[in-house]
Design goal:
18% strand; 165 residues; 7 helices; alpha+beta; Beta-Lactamase
């Protein structure tokens, strides 16, 4: 599956996976869902949910390293800056053959365009935060987040997931 097809699917995911609200309870429920999925599958991931500027949920599974929180920070910075999933921004870079450092002058120390951070949209308020997973290959990080959002929102994941590679 090419980057263009994935970008089309990512746009659908971002357009359709909206929360009714983002408060501490919603973040807890989404974070717990992600943590349970990770535990059941034996995944070594860090999970972070935040309203921009305010952490709401954080969990680190066994097997993660000190690098994972840094990846979370850098990926969520991409969502905060561009209001797109970190995976979508990374694929756009790939298509343009230009990095954020080259095209926007953004330091790689603060921005990572790898999959795993997804914008949290609330109704008319728009994008108010992000949910981020780090520890798996970037496409798998992204899809774990999408699968959890689908489950939480009562959506059929098979209809929204990225096509098999």
């Amino acid at each position: 599956m090419g980057a263009t097809k994935d970008l089309e699917r990512l746009a659908v995911q971002e357009r359709e996976l909206h929360l009714p609200k983002l408060d501490a309870q919603t973040a807890w429920e989404l974070g717990l869902r992600l943590r349970t999925m990770a535990a059941e599958r034996g995944l070594a991931v860090v999970i972070d949910i935040r309203r921009f500027g305010q952490p709401l949920f954080y969990a680190a599974m066994d097997g993660t390293t000190a690098d994972n929180p840094e990846w979370v920070r850098r990926k969520s910075n991409v969502v905060a800056r561009f209001h797109r999933s970190s995976y979508a921004v990374g694929l756009k870079e790939k298509v343009k053959k230009e990095t954020l450092a080259e095209g926007q002058g953004l330091p790689i120390a603060d921005y990572a365009t790898h999959g795993g951070s997804f914008p949290l949209v609330v109704g008319e308020a728009g994008i108010v935060g992000s949910v981020t997973v780090s520890g798996l290959p970037m496409r798998a990080d992204h899809e774990l987040v999408v699968e959890a959002l689908c489950a939480m929102l009562g959506r059929d994941y098979t209809e929204l997931k990225l096509a098999d590679e």
